[in-house]
Every structure is written in C-alpha cells, then in structure tokens.
C-alpha cells in the first residue's frame, strides 16, 4: 500500500471499516422524499486497509517524538505520555457539556483550580479558559479592551498599537475587533523604541499589545516604563503570552505592568500540537478587566463549583467552555511540576537557547548579540552573499533528520532563523543540531548547489507551491 | 530531583555555562530587574506520576460519565459511536506531536490526511471546497457571517430564531466585534435588503427540519448569501446543503468520531462555493508535485492567512483543531457510504420510536409536528428539572431543559448509542409523572 | 530593458499610452522579479472608475500580496483574461502578453507626473543598489 493512493483509490463498493448494530425498534415512516438525499458518495474501505493506509501516512510525519523541533515561539516541548492517558478517562472524555453541574463537579473543580493556577503563574486576578487557541485568546483580550473603554465612556479609542516584530495574529485579531493598527518601532537593541512609542501613544489608543520576551527572544528592560507610559495616557497593556516559557516560575506578567495576557496551553504547558490543534488559549486579566471576561467562568462556593457569567461579560466566544480535553493535560503538567519545577523549566530553556547562541554565532549572523531568553534569532545574511537563502538552510536541515527553526519571522530580521530549543532537549541533541548547522554553513561556502536542491532524503522533495496556488487542487471527487 | 522531562544533567549544565562564559544560570536572567525576577508562586507542591494518576482518577470518578449513564442530551454536543480505528490513528505520536505542516516535506502525513478530510467534508455536504477546520461549529458560523459581509460589502447579518441560542450568542460576539450588526429573524418574515447573509440551522435547534429551499430563495432574492449550519450525521440521510444551493455550510464535527469531552475540543467544519475560495478563512491544503514529479501536499492559498496578510486577513485563525479533523476523516473513512447512512437511520428510527412512545404518555406532547432527525421537543406535565433529577437517580441523563424558551419543555436526543431498553426505561420513568 | 514607449510609477506599474486617450497598464520587470512567481491577480471589472495612484487591485505570489496602483485616472475598458488564467505571463512577459488592464484616461495630463523609461531605469538601479547594501 503506497501513500500515493488516496481513499477513493482504496475504496471498493461493499466494504466497510466497522460493524454496526441492527435496528432494535420497529422502523418509523421515512420523511418526505424531498428532504432526503439522493446519494451519499463516501469511500468504502475495510478496517485492515484503513489502518494500513493511515499507518503509512503517519510514517511520513515528523513530530516531537521523532526529533528536535526548534520552532521559535512555538515551544515544541515533549508531551508527557501519562497526560494522554488521563485525558482519555471516561470521567473526563465522556461527559456532556449540558450535564447538570452536580454531575460534573470533578470537571468543574479541575477547571476552577486551573483558572487559579494560571492567574497565579501570570500574576493576574482571574482567568477565562474558554478561548480555543492563542489567536482566539488574542481576540478575546481585545474584545475585553474594547468593552472596558466603552464602559468608561469618553472619546472612542480606535487604535491598537503593536510592534514591528509582532506575530501576524496580533494585527489580524485587532482588525476582527474593529480596531485600526498603529506600529511601534524597535530600536537597534531589539527593544521598543521609546521615542516611537511616545509619539504614537495617545488618547486614540485603546491598548498596546507587546509580546514579552519579544519575538526576538529578548527581554525589554524598559517594560515597566512602557506600562507606566501606556497607563498614564489611559491605555491598557496586553501580552501575547506565547513566550511564557522564559518566565515560568520566575516572572509574573502582572508585576511587569500588564493588564491581561493570553496564554497557549499547547506551547508552554506541554499539551500536544496535534498537527495544528487542538490548542487552548486562556486569557488572564487583572481586576480592572475581570468583569469583561467571556462567559462562563467557574466559581467555587461552599465547596460547590458552578458556572457564572461575569457582570459585564463580552459574551460567549465559543459554543461551550473551552477545550476541556486540553485543559486536563495542562492541569496535570502544573500539578507535576509545582513552583520549583516551573522554575527549572524556564532556567533550562534559557540555558539551552544561550548555549545554541554561543556555539552558532561564529557561523551565522546574530543581529542582536546579547543574552537571549528562551529563543534566539539568527540571520542567514552571511550565507546570502553566496546565494544561499534561509529557506535552503531550512530544507537542508531536513536531510540531517532535524526540523528547522522558524524561518522568515520576525519580519524585522532579514532571512530570519528563529530558534527555540526548549528545556526538554538535551545537550546531546543541541550538539547534533550545532554540528549539522556547522556542516550546512560549510556547504554554503563550498557546495551551495546541494542546499538549493535540498531536501534530498525526505519522503517528498521540494514541492511546487506555485502550481498549488495557481491551479488549486483541494479535494478529490467521488462521483459514485 | 531529576525530572523525566529535563534531560540535561548537572554536568551538562556546567559544560554549557562554561561554553556561554557565565558562572550561573541566574546571570542569564540579568536583563530582568532583580526585584522582578524572583516572583513567589502559591501552587501545590509537585507530585509524582503515580500519585497524580491516582488523584486524577478520583477527580474523574466524581463526574457522571456517559459510559455509566444512558444519555438523552443533545443541543450542540452529541454522543455518537466512535469506532476504535479513530483513536488508534489519532493516538500515533507522529500525528499528535507534529506541528502545523509548514515544512511540507516532513509533514506529508498531516497534509495528506487534511486533504482527505477536506474531500470528505465536500462529499458529505456536496459543497465545492472545504478548509482544514476551525474551532467549533459556532465560531465557524461567526466567521462565515463575517466572510459574507466582506463578500457582499454589507454590514448586517440575519440569523434565524431557530438557530441554537449559544451559536447565536457567538455569532453576535464575532459580528458586533467587527462593528457589524446582527438581526434575529423569523423565517416567515421578510428579509431586509441590507443583509449580507441569512443563517439557518438544519435540523434546527429544536430538532426539526426547515424548508431550506424557500429560505435560500429568500436570501438570494435580496442578493444575500445563505449559510447553513448542519448536523454532519444527519447528512447520512438528509439532503446536503449543496442541493438546496447554500453558499456556505458549517457544522460541528465533534459528532464525527470525537467524544463529548465536556464541550471541547470540537471541530468547526467549513465549506463553501469555489467562487468564494479566496475569502474563505482557515488553512487549506492543496495537492501538487515535488521536483521529481512525485505527488505531494502543501498548505496553499496562504496569502489569505494572518501570517501573510496580517491586518488584511479575513480571519486571525492560526492553530485550529487538526487532530479532531483527522479523527473526523478516519471516522468517515471507517463508516463509509453504508456505515454513515446506517448510523443516521439508527438515530432516526430510535428517535421516532422514543417520540411516539412519549407522545402517548398522559401529560406529555410533542411540541412540533414536523419532520425531525434525532432530536425533538416534548412538553412535560411538570418542570423538566424535576423529571431529570428522577431520571438521574435511575442512571439516565435526561434531555436539555429548554423551559426558558418553551414552558416546561425538554429537548430529547436519541442516537445509535441508545438501546431499546434505555428508551423504554426513559418512557417508563417519564410516565410516572 | 524597460519598455521605451511606457511611462512608470514609483510603485512599479507601467502605462503604454494609445491613441484616443486610452492606455494599457501592467507591472514592470522589477515588480515581477520582486514578487516572484505570480499566482493570482485581482483586477477591477470593466466599467470601474480608477484614480491616479490609488489602489485598483491586488497581485499575489505564493507568499506575498501587493497592491496594484493605477498610474492614471480613468475608466476600465477591459482586463486581460489570458493573464487571469495564466498569471505566470506577468513574470514571463511583463510588458507584452502580461498586460493587465486597458482603460480610457479621464485626465491625460496626469501622464506628465510619471517617469519616462530613462528615469525609471535610474530609479530601479538606485533601489537595487540600496538592497545589496
């Protein structure tokens, strides 16, 4: 069975992949014919063929369990296996969201405690677990900002400020809330250019969203000053908490002056990435914003847990209560680490990133040569003069059995290689990565052609994405 | 104490510090002001895997699971049969520990399964193109509403009163967030011409089937798009949205091979007409070839997405529900043409058996006399909450109390998971009131 | 290299004037090389009024999207359907088969505000120098 086949190629009429019971009640009259579908055209495969097909496909994939995955700001840390088992318990997986609250007190307790832990970890007052992913959390935070200013009255604040190094979800989320964007420049150290901030931070600005550490992997020492400036001029300060891994157990967003922060359980808190989800993007907020959190929150009263709607809630942002199946794993993670364990996470993450920085900087241009936090941004600038681009470096790493770092982001670094090793990687793995990168730097000098044509050893080689975009083939079709 | 997730030893750390040229890890945090980098955290002390498993088992056992109770709850989350193939595929760590497939050459597993998922959603709904999935049915509906406003260059969205109330709330949050407006409409009233779209659920929140053709016509007559919110299992027997000319179809794919999971993760299926492809939010996977001419898959039309278009993107969506989409693909492949139809028919006939029996009980009646699929509303002689308490004592989770919409009424859901014995017991207990 | 009979904008569009106050418009060679392989064009429908230097459409490559600005004001007469179906023509033949839009100029004097081909050649040369720094 080759993966060149698709389900319609394996399908034969009369096959089925599982057994189903026969009807145990007398059949009812069917509805009027106009309501019924004429034909259902789905593949028909046996269980055997199905399992072989999907097993073959899985072998074409590279996951954290395969190897190193140093994607910047993604925090691809190892996913503990016992979390997977726990999340599958019937008492967690097979409970219905509309069940009476008395019948799901265990689930509500878990959510309540997770709300508390996340608020404690970030130095905030309350948490909403509802947002389904980081971008959803960003949207939530900005809707709360909007509601906050509407309630205060006064002149409408129509702008959100972002930095020039912000992730694409930041401006996209702002627009989804009806805001305009203002950009704050970064200075040559990679920090916020205070003059730039001074000039754009005015009474039209509802909030500044600032990732911390920044997407350059750097701590901006001006952060308290920044929060004071923003607050003085009536604005709020929000964090994209994607980089929380650098702060775990050490630094609280609340103490830096942030009013709210959006988290990613599928990054910092070890839940698996799933090939693109499910994630979970809780929002933690200070007192000034807690009334606006989305519905519902879990509260505890006399030992009983229940759902409530915050006084001035922005409303519902999802059908139910968030990705509970993901929350279970994050909860287990925090309970297995405790405060000391969280601190060890950030320490090892920051150590690993600085180690990579020191060992690789003789070979790759380092635009900000200073202590980094949990990630380091290199540039493929040096290799560019030989006609080798960051894309080629990334593709060549695949030949060494390694996943490349994030490429071409942040936008303010030319030919960026945003590298986050995270704490679950050993020095041995990092050394293997360093050796591969050294080899590639040498190949860029001596044999650039091998980089341009990379990868060579992967299940497929470089793919024609021009063709994919010009002539979109987005599905097969089964006619009968 | 060594940690299983921190593979570096003290010796490793010392060697690395030497290489960096600092004497302690603390030095690496010196950009952070002293008083801000030693925060104290009130968290419970750590426990081992063994101890925590025990504790979490206890916590889980404090929940009444559907493994131990017969369930007649629906209303947006459904207990359907999940064949074991699903978890044996989604449980493979090559799938679940992978990242979003930006490096296509090493992500063909994820990419090809997404292509299969997209195809299966199109086959099921009859629509021309599908994305790789969004958060859940409600947010997919919200995003569809915004997409319609962008396409039609109008600022208003019309939603039927018979759409699930929580979906309406979410659509409202999304639409008003963008400073657009929303109007709840009775389907038999006229539609104002400033509406960009009309959103109707099929079957609707109360379980019965709407006359979709008529409503599509109404929308198209005023130049608006028609958005259908569908039950994917119902499509095993009922007319798909393409047949009644819907422009966009959304659904919650939780019913396709995913457990109820206390409401999340779900899966927002999203499909539309080819002409609206470039306004469709979410990731899309396309088929192409590599430099050797081998077939392969890539994320495509990425210029729609936030990491390229940033503030001009239709949506901010990044991570979605890829593993749930994989589950849905495996589910649909496992059941196939015959299996899905069989499941739909089992739901249909069992629900009608239950409805017929309940309707015969003194003090009970079916609120709607219209064709339905697996959910229906019954009026009860007393408050449904009291009835549900009695049912629970007998190992049954009763229907959704919708007395806040229709007096003393309950929305009952019957699927292939409910046996004749369970239904008979339900009827017996209802009959005691 | 850049077509002599055209006039140019700073945003790298060209216009080739035609008799009767008409003109055809396209993207320059510099634009297409910066964009990379073009995959999609969003052009204004015939009948649309366009304004000088205002956005009239979009051009997409695989990983980027750019606005197309009109070099002059006027009304769109026709769009090049061939290039819609084969966007790669813009890369292959930007001044010929890769033309995008034909329009009728409402203010022909606006052409004076544009660069002639010598000036544009210099403009592009300076940009390329800046980039290699």
Instruction: Give the C-level CATH assignment of the largest domain in chain A.
Output: Alpha Beta
C-alpha Rg of chain A (nearest Å): 25 Å
CATH superfamily of the largest domain in chain A: Type I PLP-dependent aspartate aminotransferase-like (Major domain)
The major sheet of chain B is characterized as: 7 strands, mixed
Oligomer: heterotrimer
Summarize the structure.
Chain A is an alpha/beta fold. Chain A has helices spanning 7-10, 47-58, 81-87, 90-93, 105-122, 134-152, 169-176, 194-200, 223-232, 253-256, 287-290, 324-360, 381-384, 390-399, 427-446, 448-452, 465-470, and strands spanning 126-128, 159-163, 180-184, 205-209, 236-240, 260-262, 283-285, 297-301, 304-308, 376-379, 406-407, 416-419.
Name its key features.
heterotrimer, A: 480 residues, alpha/beta, Aspartate Aminotransferase, domain 2, Aspartate Aminotransferase, domain 1, 2 domains, seven-stranded mixed β-sheet, 12 strands, globular, C: 133 residues, alpha+beta, OB fold (Dihydrolipoamide Acetyltransferase, E2P), six-stranded antiparallel β-sheet, three-stranded antiparallel β-sheet, 9 strands, 33% strand
Structural topology:
The complex is a heterotrimer of chains A (480), B (433) and C (133).
Chain A: H1 7-10, H2 47-58, H3 81-87, H4 90-93, H5 105-122, E1 126-128, H6 134-152, E2 159-163, H7 169-176, E3 180-184, H8 194-200, E4 205-209, H9 223-232, E5 236-240, H10 253-256, E6 260-262, E7 283-285, H11 287-290, E8 297-301, E9 304-308, H12 324-360, E10 376-379, H13 381-384, H14 390-399, E11 406-407, E12 416-419, H15 427-446, H16 448-452, H17 465-470
Parallel strand pairs in A: 2-3, 2-4, 4-5, 5-6
Antiparallel strand pairs in A: 1-7, 6-7, 8-9, 10-12, 11-12
Helix pairs in contact in A: 3-12, 5-12, 6-7, 12-15
Chain B: H1 10-20, H2 49-61, E1 70-71, H3 84-90, H4 93-96, H5 108-125, E2 129-130, H6 137-152, E3 156-160, H7 165-177, E4 181-185, E5 195-202, H8 212-221, E6 225-230, E7 248-252, E8 268-272, E9 285-289, E10 295-299, H9 306-309, H10 322-360, E11 365-366, E12 375-379, H11 384-393, E13 396-397, E14 400-401, E15 409-413, H12 420-431
Parallel strand pairs in B: 1-13, 3-4, 3-5, 5-6, 6-7
Antiparallel strand pairs in B: 2-8, 7-8, 9-10, 11-12, 12-15, 14-15
Chain C: E1 7-8, E2 13-18, E3 22-27, H1 29-35, E4 38-42, E5 49-50, E6 55-61, E7 65-69, E8 74-79, H2 81-85, H3 88-92, E9 101-105, H4 117-132
Antiparallel strand pairs in C: 1-2, 2-3, 3-9, 4-6, 5-8, 6-7, 8-9
